[in-house]
Structures are given as C-alpha cells and as structure tokens.
C-alpha cells in the first residue's frame, strides 16, 4: 500500500512528532506507516485524514497485488 503522508505533512508543515501527537501515537508509529512497514488501523487512517483535511483514499492507495 502506498501513502502520501510525507507529502501531506509537508503541505501542512508538520513533523512526524507533531502528527503523532495530534492523533495519539508515537513518532515511531508515524515513521513505520510512512515507510509502508505498518498498515494503520481504520481509526488511525481516519484521524490522519481529519488532520490533513482530506479523505482517507487521498492518503492511502492499494498497489497491484495488495
């Protein structure tokens, strides 16, 4: 699964730590989600979408074979 978290953070000008605090997880969790090592729960995905002011499908996209 691909994601645009890094891009969305740059648009909002927030760090991994700031995003983590806003959604109630650790900075390491944001890092693992950004690097596609961890797929977030629906709740976390929705919280991120709320912070960025966009829909979940604008952040996460299934790749061929997912």
From TrEMBL:
It comes from Pedobacter frigoris. The lineage of its organism: Bacteria, Pseudomonadati, Bacteroidota, Sphingobacteriia, Sphingobacteriales. InterPro entries: Cro/C1-type_HTH, Lambda_DNA-bd_dom_sf. This is Helix-turn-helix transcriptional regulator. Signal peptide: none annotated. Residues 5-59 form the HTH cro/C1-type domain. It comes from the Bacteria. PANTHER family: HTH-TYPE TRANSCRIPTIONAL REGULATOR XRE (PTHR46558:SF11), TRACRIPTIONAL REGULATORY PROTEIN-RELATED-RELATED (PTHR46558). GO terms for molecular function: DNA binding. Transmembrane segments: none annotated. Keywords: DNA-binding.
